[in-house]
Amino acid sequence: MVSAEVSLRELGIQLPKAPKPFGAYVAAVQTGNLLFLTGMLPVENQKPKFVGRIGKELDGAAGREAAELAALNALAVARESLGSLDKVVRVVRLGVYIATSGDLVDQPRVADGASELFNKVFGPDKMSARLVIGVARLPMDTPVELEVILETKS
């Protein structure tokens, strides 16, 4: 069984400080054995690191980086909520919303920035179902927003 906390150390990944909500909501809600995270954005120190739409202001490589940063923020929020990422049984669902110029067709490659990080941290046996959707705009003009649902140990 893969330890997520050990994987982070072995990969040399130090999680950022968990972002705080930007409005009137909480960062995570646990119900039963499911942890629902708020929409995760590619922010650092409560400010967007990436701004714009993929295919217009940003290219696909920047989109992948934005998705990975949003996933790192999701891990930080999950760890803050659970105390340890080793309490994650699996990533149940990953929704990736990508702001595009309208003609981008390679959304799955952008979304892989988040999926591949989760795969490295949790292992392939804990991968999620995934939904990828192109949208016109996202909060704070970020290019990516993640929806993450985790199954946790009782």
| Computed structural class | alpha+beta
The CATH architecture is: 2-Layer Sandwich
Order of helical and strand elements: HEEEEHEHEE
| Whole-number count of domains | 1
What's the short version?
The protein is an alpha+beta fold and 154 residues long.
Task: Give the key terms.
154 residues; alpha+beta; 60s Ribosomal Protein L30, Chain: A; five-stranded mixed β-sheet; two-stranded antiparallel ribbon; 3 helices; 26% strand
Structural features, described:
By secondary structure, the chain is α+β, with helices and mostly antiparallel strands. It has one domain (4-152): RutC-like (60s Ribosomal Protein L30, Chain: A), CATH 3.30.1330. The protein contains three helices and seven strands. The strands form two sheets. The chain has a five-stranded mixed β-sheet, covered by helices on one side. A two-stranded antiparallel sheet has the order 3-4. Helix 2 runs parallel beside helix 3 (107-122). It is globular. The mean pLDDT is 96.
Which helices and strands, and how do they pair?
Layout (H helix, E strand, L loop, with lengths): L3 H8 L16 E4 L2 E4 L5 E2 L2 E2 L11 H23 L5 E12 L7 H16 L6 E7 L8 E9 L2
Helix pairs in contact: 2-3
